[in-house]
Specification:
alpha/beta, Rossmann fold, 2 domains, seven-stranded mixed β-sheet, 12 strands
Length: about 290
């Protein structure tokens, strides 16, 4: 199938969403294959629009994953998870996160899936997008679905207008969730607050390796993801040198990538948080 412009790619994604909704294939895994700029995220935007999701869908290249809630025609709640492994030569802990999404019967879209092919189910949809020299795209849809109902999407120009969700239906659980995230890594007990809910974690030596996953897992408990964070407060010190450095790196990166306000624990806004160790750094003198 040839796609000639962005709108047709959006329409194609919305058409696939309409078919998935009508057939009840809402725990499907969709693998997207295509070069940079082929239109994978544009397709996913169209898919989300067809599902009734009104939260803006953006590429998860930096955050690795984004999640969006939507309602099926029978008003049951479902989740669309969008993964992008382009920046991860090794998926590491994200393997567990992706496996959890698949086990939870979410609708999962995966870009750059080469490093995690072994955990993708055989009965997935594979969508290959070939970018042509003239700017058009050729789409090839491969399905290995055990259900006898075929997912056969025709050219979007032949499809009627899509009305998959009532305008009064919440498009996403997150549409009314503004997450204020508070993080304190100044001691071996990490403190994380998501709005009014506080979590404590005996992070010890696992902070650098597992902090991002810990935050992401807690966000998911609130049916939220990185893009739902609207502001961050960080306990900037004094405290542990290692803990403060790791925590500051995380909050600075999140605030920059999400383009959101960043505050210290005194309520002062910062473009970048610098840890306040409260004493000179204990640097070992070089050996002679």
């Amino acid at each position: 199938m040839k796609i000639t412009n962005e709108q047709e790619m959006l329409d194609y994604g919305a058409s696939l969403a309409k078919k998935l909704l009508s057939d009840g294939h809402l725990s499907t895994v969709i693998e997207l294959i295509g070069d940079v700029g082929a239109g994978k995220t544009t397709f996913t935007r169209g898919l989300a629009e067809g599902l009734g999701i009104r939260t803006p869908v953006t590429s998860p290249s930096y955050t690795i994953s984004r999640s969006y809630a939507f309602a099926a025609p029978d008003d049951t709640a479902h989740i669309l998870d969008h993964y992008d492994f382009y920046r991860l030569p090794s998926p590491g802990l994200m393997t567990d996160t992706l496996s959890e999404s698949i086990r939870a019967d979410h609708l999962v879209v995966v870009e750059w899936a080469d490093t995690i092919k072994n955990i993708l189910p055989h009965d997935r949809i594979t969508l290959k997008i070939q970018l042509n020299d003239d700017g058009t795209r050729e789409i090839t849809l491969i399905q290995n679905h055990p259900d006898p109902k075929n997912i056969n999407i025709q050219s979007p120009v032949n499809n009627p207008p899509l009305t998959t969700a009532d305008s009064n239906t919440p498009s996403t659980i997150n549409s009314h969730r503004a997450i204020h995230l508070y993080l304190d890594t100044s001691t071996p007990t990490t403190i994380l607050r998501i709005n009014n809910t506080e979590y404590t974690w005996q992070s010890r030596n696992n902070l650098a390796e597992q902090l991002l996953k810990y935050i992401h897992d807690r966000l998911r408990e609130h049916h939220a993801d990185w893009h739902d964070i609207k502001e961050i407060t960080f306990m900037s010190g004094p405290g542990s040198f290692t803990g403060l450095r790791i925590g500051a790196t995380i909050v600075n990166t999140l605030a920059h990538d999400l383009d959101i306000p960043l505050y210290d624990h005194h309520g002062k806004k910062h473009p970048i948080i610098l840890p306040d160790y409260g004493r000179p750094a204990n640097i070992t003198a070089p050996r002679k």
